[in-house]
Specification:
Blueprint (H helix, E strand, L loop, with lengths): L1 H26 L12 H21 L4 H32 L18 E5 L3 E7 H4 L9 H14 L6 E7 L6 H19 L6 E4 L12 H7 L1 E7 L11
Helix pairs in contact: 1-2, 1-3, 2-3, 3-5
C-alpha cells in the first residue's frame, strides 16, 4: 500500500507539470513566425521535459509533490525551449530560402519545387533539387545555389548548438561507385559552406533511398538532390541513406 501511495503522490505532480508544459509551449508561439504555427516539437519537447523533470525532481529532492512539480516545470521549460528553437529555425530557414515550411510528403514529388523545407519531431530537413545545384556530373555549386546555401549558413550561425547533417543523392545512371563518389563530393561542397558551427556529418548515398523509381527522366531528376538535416540532439540522427 505504501508503494501505491508513493506512486499516486508522484503521478499527480507529473500530470500538473505536463499540463504546465503545454501552457509553456503556448507561450513560445510567437506571432512573427507565420510560415508554420503548429510548433509540434515545442509541445513534444515541453511534455517530455516535464515528465523527465518531475521524476528527477521527485527522486533527487525530498520525494514530495513540490519537488516533482518544480522539476517538471524546469524540465518543461528546457524541453520547450529546445523544441521552439528547432521550430524557429525551420521558419527562419524557409524564410531565408524564399519558401515556407511544407510537411506534405507530396511536396518532395513536385518537380516545380527546387527547395523543400519540412520538419518532424526530430529534425528539420531541407531538400535542394539537383537541377538548381549542379551541372551534370559536377560537384561545383552554381551561383544561385551557392547563394541559397549561404543563406542557410547565415541562419545556422545564430544556432551554434544545432547538429547538421548533409547527404547527397543521385539517380541510377552510371555505376554505383561513380554515383557514390559524385554524391559524396556534392554533399561535401554543401557541407563546407554550412560548417559555421562545426563540421557537419556528411555522407554520399549514391542512388540509395530513391524518392521515386528511377524509371523516367522526370523521376531521375527528383532523385538527384542534396538533403540538409538540422538536429537538436546528436543521438536522434539516423542514417540518411537507409
Amino acid at each position: 500500500m505504501k508503494e501505491k501511495g508513493n506512486t499516486m503522490k508522484l503521478t499527480k505532480p507529473i500530470l500538473a507539470a505536463t499540463a504546465a508544459a503545454f501552457m509553456l509551449g503556448g507561450c513560445y508561439n510567437q506571432p512573427g513566425l507565420v510560415e508554420d504555427q503548429s510548433y509540434n516539437r515545442t509541445k513534444t519537447g515541453a511534455a517530455t521535459g516535464a515528465l523527465a523533470g518531475s521524476v528527477i525532481g521527485y527522486n533527487t529532492g525530498s520525494r514530495d509533490a513540490k519537488s516533482a512539480i518544480i522539476g517538471g516545470l524546469l524540465g518543461a521549460a528546457v524541453g520547450g525551449a529546445v523544441g521552439y528553437s528547432m521550430d524557429q529555425q525551420a521558419n527562419e530557414v524557409a524564410r531565408a530560402l524564399g519558401t515556407g515550411v511544407n510537411n506534405d510528403p507530396l511536396a518532395a514529388l513536385d518537380p516545380r519545387r527546387d527547395i523543400v523545407v519540412s520538419k518532424t519531431n526530430d529534425h528539420v530537413k531541407i531538400i535542394f533539387r539537383d537541377r538548381m545545384m549542379f551541372a551534370t556530373g559536377s560537384s561545383k555549386l552554381q551561383s544561385n545555389a551557392k547563394h541559397k546555401v549561404n543563406k542557410v549558413a547565415q541562419v545556422l550561425a545564430n544556432y551554434p548548438q544545432t547538429i547538421v547533417g548533409v547527404a547527397g543523392f543521385t539517380d541510377n545512371v552510371g555505376s554505383y561507385s561513380y554515383n557514390l563518389d559524385l554524391s559524396k563530393r556534392r554533399a561535401a561542397t554543401v557541407s563546407n559552406i554550412l560548417a559555421v558551427n562545426g563540421r557537419p556529418y556528411t555522407k554520399g548515398c549514391s542512388y540509395n533511398k530513391a524518392i521515386v523509381p528511377n524509371d523516367s527522366a522526370k523521376n531521375r531528376a527528383l532523385n538527384r538532390r542534396v538533403e540538409v538535416y538540422l538536429y537538436a540532439d546528436r543521438n536522434r540522427m539516423s542514417d540518411p541513406c537507409r
